[in-house]
């Protein structure tokens, strides 16, 4: 029984993109047996055995809560004291809410929940915040099964229902007027993010109770950002992806090191050979070789930053500059319908600063519609003579040319000048060459074209350039 | 070793190492399941100290292997003592012996230099094996640790496989300097040590800096806690909070204010850029009351 539950839970984690091995599941079962089923201990037992990477913990927490609290509440023993204490605090807040709700409905105008929200945040009154969160979620009415896919949207609706945006505005004003200290302000922000999370978890909880395992499964799948398409990411997920990219970059960098360290042949290192020969009484039994100097590729990034592609270009730039010591030289260009070099921004700035500055200051757009033909021609004329024939040119973009002239001859001449051209396309493969996408016309001049729609594919293509 | 988690918690507390219930559960699990304990977390939260405390409360010998780039089997596991072997051969030159005899003579345990890992496996007394900062070692070394950590045995070609006499309590620490392989991580029980909560840190300060004023300790801990949330290169660790508390005690400070903090900030922050960032904002970061 318990084993099955843990197994099923592990399967859920895998759906969410967390790698869980069989050994880990075995360890989790042993661990659960060792510490018992009290809520906290059981949680720790699973956490310490199933989660290998700190980044996966938020997802683990969420799925743990949904699976063992909402779906299968019989498995673990809940901590009763904790709940009791909670309700006691809550009653005070509830009375308040109820009284104001009464006024609100009775007199038509007057107190709106947003004033209450402001009050709750200013007093950092968590029971009241919880009550407000419940109000927000209740206002959504009956939930359909389709709702599972749009939890973010529903949270937003719930926010509007309790006057979230008004409240945030008011709080900003109060902050300026009353010169609120940074510490207190950061507490306010904590309150708000708590409320947001709380509403989200309430919603998830409701959905799981109503629709069972299917709902959890869908939530897990939705949380798998590694396979989520770039244009569907929300703000929080973009943050998460940025962190993942830094991590991925480190991984790519060290994998590279391992592959090349083995091959040490060539020039003999005389000094070390003789030194080593002393061990064998002066006979050089083993030859020592000089370290090989690894030739590093030169990279030129030509990034489309129009609309839907911009985010992908940003990720790619971040990734490449994080591992920039793996390349002898990187030059980067941004374009929409005109092209500008942004290499300079990355020289003395942190990557975040550089990205911000590059996007703000570079002159890459005279209109919001990309024009590949024009860009290639300009690129050939202004920059091509400065590239070495050893360099790899990477073009990031969807090749949607807005029905303009393609100028493929320009691209051909560029291709003859550099070692190779690689094209990373963030559009799904089956949409290539439909509508105004002309990737097929450019394809003959590229060594390879990759589909690159999500983090997983981004990792794969990066390996291709190392 | 320990009968229950409570016992472990109590014993560590007697040694003045305070841990949360959750942390105790993980440590207890590692002991109980005889799996290595992998401790991760920011610098200065007491990862290494945990291993030392465990050794002390279990009356075990602490064997420490500090990892660094370039660490290999010869330094971590064992090495043949070439010089001694040569000497031996020289002495035996006159007694004409067959190759077989000679070979057996020089590849025996007598000529084996035991490095920390072998030492830990062969020990008959209880040991705590601390492999410090695993993330600083090379990838090759990491894969080589796999055999030791999963089966508690090592293979020496000339001698055969050596199995652990008793399973050592193994603690690995990592600063996330480099992301190391999943294979190694999967063999361990995980513990993430974060900065302590306000109450816990207060307790630690009162324990380590006896004689500190109640209110002062509260003030200084809450300031450090706020400081950690700022966007700085190196947030102050527990050790730095203790240092700061000691300095304030020495300076006979009874309440902290902006001036005091500004003049002693370099004890908490080790990077000039961090200090420059925080210095003008000190008064707004101080606790309200």
Q: What are the key terms here?
A:
heterodimer, A: 466 residues, alpha/beta, six-stranded mixed beta sheet, 19 helices, 6 strands, 57% helix, 7% strand, globular, B: 289 residues, Rossmann fold, 3 domains, five-stranded parallel beta sheet, two-stranded antiparallel sheet, 15 helices, 14% strand
What does this structure look like?
The complex is a heterodimer of chains A (466) and B (289). The two termini of chain A are 48 Å apart. Chain A is built from 19 helices and 6 strands. Chain A folds into 4 domains: 2-6 and 17-71; 84-223, no CATH class; 235-280; 298-465, 3-Layer(aba) Sandwich (Rossmann fold). With 466 residues, chain A is an alpha/beta fold. Chain A has a 6-stranded mixed β-sheet with strand order 3-2-1-4-5-6, with helices on both faces. Chain B contains 15 helices and 9 strands. Chain B has helices at residues 5-14, 21-33, 47-57, 73-76, 82-92, 99-106, 116-122, 139-151, 182-186, 198-208, 214-229, 238-250, 258-268, 272-278, 282-285; strands at 37-40, 61-66, 78-80, 112-114, 127-132, 153-156, 160-163, 169-174, 189-192. In chain B, helix 10 packs across helix 11. The radius of gyration of chain B is 24 Å and the shape is elongated. The mean pLDDT of chain B is 87. Classes of the chains: A alpha/beta (466), B alpha/beta (289).
CATH architecture of the largest domain in chain A: 3-Layer(aba) Sandwich
In the CATH hierarchy, the architecture of the largest domain in chain B is 3-Layer(aba) Sandwich
Strand order of the largest sheet of chain A: 3-2-1-4-5-6
Q: Most extensive interface: pair and counts?
A: A-B, 36 and 33 residues
Spatial separation of the terminal alpha carbons of chain B: 47 Å
Mean pLDDT of chain B: 87
From the spread of the alpha carbons, the general shape of chain B counts as: elongated
For this structure, what is the CATH class of the largest domain in chain B? Answer: Alpha Beta
Strand content of chain A: 5-15%
How large is the share of residues in beta strands of chain B?
5-15%
Q: What oligomeric state best describes the polypeptide chains here?
A: heterodimer
**Low-pLDDT residue spans of chain B:** none
Number of domains of chain A: 4
User: How much helical structure, as a percent, in the residues of chain B?
Assistant: 40-55%
Main sheet summary of chain B: 5 strands, parallel
């Amino acid at each position: 029984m318990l084993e099955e539950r843990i197994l099923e839970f592990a399967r859920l984690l895998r759906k969410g993109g967390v790698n869980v091995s069989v050994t880990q599941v075995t360890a989790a079962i042993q661990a659960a047996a060792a510490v018992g089923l009290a809520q906290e201990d059981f949680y720790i037992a699973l956490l310490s055995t199933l989660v290998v990477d700190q980044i996966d913990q938020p997802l683990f927490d969420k799925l743990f809560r949904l699976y063992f609290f909402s779906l299968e509440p019989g498995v673990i023993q809940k901590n009763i004291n904790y709940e009791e204490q909670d309700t006691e605090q809550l009653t005070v807040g509830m009375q308040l809410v109820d009284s104001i709700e009464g006024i609100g409905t009775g007199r038509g105008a007057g107190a709106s929940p947003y004033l209450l929200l402001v009050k709750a945040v200013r007093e950092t009154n968590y029971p009241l915040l919880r009550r407000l969160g419940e109000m927000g979620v209740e206002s959504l009415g009956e939930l359909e099964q389709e709702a599972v896919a749009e939890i973010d949207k529903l949270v937003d609706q719930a926010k509007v229902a309790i006057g979230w945006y008004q409240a945030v505005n008011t709080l900003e004003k109060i902050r300026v007027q009353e010169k609120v200290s940074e510490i207190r302000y950061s507490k306010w922000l904590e309150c708000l993010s708590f409320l947001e999370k709380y509403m989200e978890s309430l919603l998830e909880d409701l959905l799981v109770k109503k629709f069972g395992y299917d709902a959890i499964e869908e939530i897990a799948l939705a949380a798998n950002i590694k396979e989520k398409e770039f244009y569907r990411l929300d703000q929080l997920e973009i943050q998460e992806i940025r962190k993942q990219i830094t991590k991925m970059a480190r991984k790519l960098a060290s994998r590279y090191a391992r592959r090349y360290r083995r091959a040490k042949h060539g020039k003999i290192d005389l000094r070390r050979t003789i030194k080593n020969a002393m061990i064998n009484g002066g006979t050089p039994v083993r030859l020592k070789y000089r370290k090989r100097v690894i030739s590093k590729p030169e990279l030129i990034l030509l990034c489309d930053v129009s609309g839907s592609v911009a985010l992908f270009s940003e990720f790619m730039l971040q990734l490449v500059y994080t591992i920039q010591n793996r390349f002898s030289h990187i030059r980067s260009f941004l374009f929409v319908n005109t092209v500008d070099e942004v290499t300079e921004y990355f020289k003395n700035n942190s990557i975040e600063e550089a990205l911000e500055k590059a996007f703000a200051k570079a002159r890459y757009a005279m209109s919001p519609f990309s024009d590949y033909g024009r860009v290639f021609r300009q690129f050939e004329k202004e920059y091509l003579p400065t590239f070495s024939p050893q360099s790899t040119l990477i073009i990031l973009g969807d090749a949607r040319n807005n029905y303009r002239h393609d100028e493929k001859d320009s691209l051909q001449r560029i291709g003859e000048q550099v070692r190779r051209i690689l094209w990373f396309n963030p559009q799904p493969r089956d949409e290539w060459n439909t509508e105004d996408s002309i990737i097929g016309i450019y394809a003959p001049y590229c060594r390879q074209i990759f589909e690159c729609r999500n983090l997983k594919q981004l990792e794969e293509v990066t390996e291709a350039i190392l | 070793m320990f009968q229950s988690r409570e016992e472990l918690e109590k014993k560590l507390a007697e040694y003045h190492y305070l841990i949360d219930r959750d942390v105790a559960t993980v440590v207890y699990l590692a002991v109980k399941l005889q799996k290595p304990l992998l401790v991760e977390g920011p610098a200065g939260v007491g990862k290494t100290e945990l291993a030392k405390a465990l050794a002390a409360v279990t009356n075990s010998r602490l064997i420490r292997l500090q990892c660094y780039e370039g660490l290999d089997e010869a330094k971590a596991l064992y090495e043949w003592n070439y010089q001694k072997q040569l000497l031996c051969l020289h002495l035996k030159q006159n007694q004409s012996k067959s190759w077989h005899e000679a070979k057996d003579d020089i590849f025996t345990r007598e000529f084996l230099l035991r490095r920390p890992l072998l030492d830990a496996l062969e020990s008959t007394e209880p040991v705590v094996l601390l492999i410090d900062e695993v993330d600083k070692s090379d990838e090759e070394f990491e894969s080589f640790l796999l055999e030791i950590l999963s089966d508690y045995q090592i293979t020496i070609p000339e001698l055969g496989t050596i199995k652990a006499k008793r399973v050592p309590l193994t603690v690995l620490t990592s600063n996330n300097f480099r992301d190391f392989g999943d294979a190694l991580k999967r063999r361990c029980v995980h513990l993430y040590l974060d900065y302590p909560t306000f109450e816990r840190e207060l307790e630690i300060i009162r324990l380590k800096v006896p004689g500190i004023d109640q209110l002062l300790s509260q003030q200084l801990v809450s300031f450090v806690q706020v400081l950690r949330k700022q966007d700085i290169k190196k947030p102050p660790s527990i050790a730095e909070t203790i240092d700061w508390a000691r300095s304030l005690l020495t300076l006979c400070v009874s309440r902290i204010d902006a001036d005091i903090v500004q003049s002693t900030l370099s004890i908490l922050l080790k990077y000039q850029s961090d200090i420059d960032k925080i210095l003008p904002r000190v008064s707004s970061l101080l606790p309200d009351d």
